[in-house]
Amino acid sequence: MNLRIVSLLSAMAMTVTGTMAENIHISTPGTSLVVDATKGEPMKFLYYGAALNPSDVGNLTFGGASSLNAYPVYGLNPEREAAFSAVHSDGNMTLDMVVSDVTTRTDSDGSKVTTVTMKDKVYPFTIDVNYRTYPSEDVIETWTEASHSEKGTVSLTRFMSGYMPVRRSDVHVSQLYGSWANEGRVEEAPLPHGVKIIKNKDGVRNSHTAHGEVMMSLDGKARENEGRVIGAALCYGGNYKLMFDTDDSDFHHFFAGINEENSSYNLKKGEKFTTPALAFTYSEEGLSGASRNFHRWGRNHRLAHGKDLRKVLLNSWEGVYFDINEAGMQQMMDDISSMGGELFVMDDGWFGEKYPRNNDHSSLGDWTVDTRKLPNGIKGLCDAAADKGIRFGIWIEPEMANTVSELYEKHPEYILKADKREPVLGRGGTQVVLDMANPRVQDIVFNIVDTLMTRYPQIDYIKWDANAPVMNHGSQYLTADNQSHLYIDYHKGLEAALKRIRAKYPDVTIQACASGGGRANWGILPYFDEFWVSDNTDALQRIYLQWGTSYFFPAVAMASHISATPNHQTARRVPLKFRTDVAMSGRLGMEIQPKNMSDDEKAQTKKAISEYKDIRPIVQQGDIYRLLSPYDRKGAASLMYVSPDKENAVFFWWKTEQFANQQLPRVTMAGLDPDRMYTVTELNRIDNKPLPFEGKSYSGRYLMSNGLEMPLSHDASWDKAGDYSSRVLLLK
Ligand code: DGJ
Question: Which of 296, 297, 336, 629 could make an SS bond with 314 (beta carbons 3.0 to 4.6 A apart)?
Fold first, then answer.
């Protein structure tokens, strides 16, 4: 029976006590979540995993010794961790929530929302637990809405987006952690007893040090293409907390939501508190399978312009840093245009009249062009770009100011700062964060984009940066009793500004950058087309950075640029071929001064850009299969993208270590149609002779069971042959 037909169907079943249980089936094509929403009882968790048929759904009972609430609240049985806690206006710290209603609706995007409404048995306090499904995605989003009609204010002290009990067996959790220029490193470990918390308190950038997404491999050590995996991604750009509580029961209790630390929220009568969504997926095809589910859902439903292809661009930052001037920008535009690029982005350093932005000590907030550097202004650059047949993009950092700026001189009240205290200052010794909780500041942020786009409608791309954490707990706008709202209201305010921007400028491409990879999260991406994966552009380290990031985010959103050698972050010398082959596995761009490239390198890059355009739909819209992990330290790493119809694929292989006569594993491919024949073409070839399998056709079955043997090095001149060999193969 088609499971979609029974989607959201309620099956009736008898509970042990004889009351009628109402099993609510939240279904996607390949997965099922079942809760018991019997009226007058707490909502119970029954099942999450592979798709069930109606008979299974109806007959489900909870297997464990005692039942588990599907959204546990604090107060009665307080020895357990809870997803939600509140202090009522009379000081009572308990909640006792029972189901009062279950409703479903279909939204305009075709998604279905099931809402289980729970009411407190004594207080006029309501929590709606929502589940959203899409007709063709194996992802379920859950979030909650709390409201009350008590006389006074209710203080919310914990407000998780969702809870999921995970049966104990040999569950391994894969998480991403790191720091600036080293984001998204994969760490995998079995779940220990006690509490494991993954959290962020930066306030602005929430994915440098740890990510708000995890993979849970249910059958022991994580494998890429086999095994049961639950993936969870919190869709939030602010402070978060993911928590695993492994107590004396048979379950790991997983919670995820806004980090409640220093953030209790005073909810007035009639107001609604809405948590961000937590997205779950389940796959029996290992980590890569869970990634594919997140990627498809993200491209189709969350990422701005997720189904569109991205332009090949040159960004000016590593090429000239703050040294912006018209001749330099013209030269870079000439160069990227002559290499076949489609867009030029002018990074930091173009603005500031009274205080020119020559370094990071001043000018944020003063978004007027510095005509000493750009006598013909932005208009001149847009026109020049058009003449060269490319588009123009620009860098801004709207949520920030420097204390050395005209904005701060006129409006010191717009910054985050604790009352009676001097502000703590950030980057350049003068950077401060604007108070996004203040509607006036939200207007300013909107106006920065609005003014640029109104004056220069040719602007095609905005790089939106954010280079500071919340350094001062203090809003000059919020009242004294609501100071604890700061972290949450900052992100509400940011989202309000972004919504206005997107409503007026739906077509402009916007990159989320936050000191590199500080804003890789599904909360912010509905407003952004992509994110800067890291300020680290070293090709070898990028293999690791992009590997982990691809657990949750698709290549179309991952900006991946060819940069100079020696690399500016690691000082490593890496041949152009390798740098190109790594960058081409994401959204290809350049982060380099092309003036310093040789003619030979420019020709090589021109060819690569042209070949990238051929594989762009496969890389940016295809299904990822990670094959050989760099973290396994086998001397190489490899992944591939397969077009949804399985007609075409691109195989990437990079050597990560160089030893004489080393033995590398042969990589078997995945995701192909076993019965289809694929013809192999090497891209970016530098070898004197083609590979032995060049131009030959092989069945998907052979490629997936045997694979192709990659030579240890390149058949090329001495300087290109040895270290860092890499291959990109197109299979058609
Ligand atoms: C930090 C970003 O990550 C860089 O790419 C660059 O835009 C600088 N900021 C500019 O100040």
Answer: 336
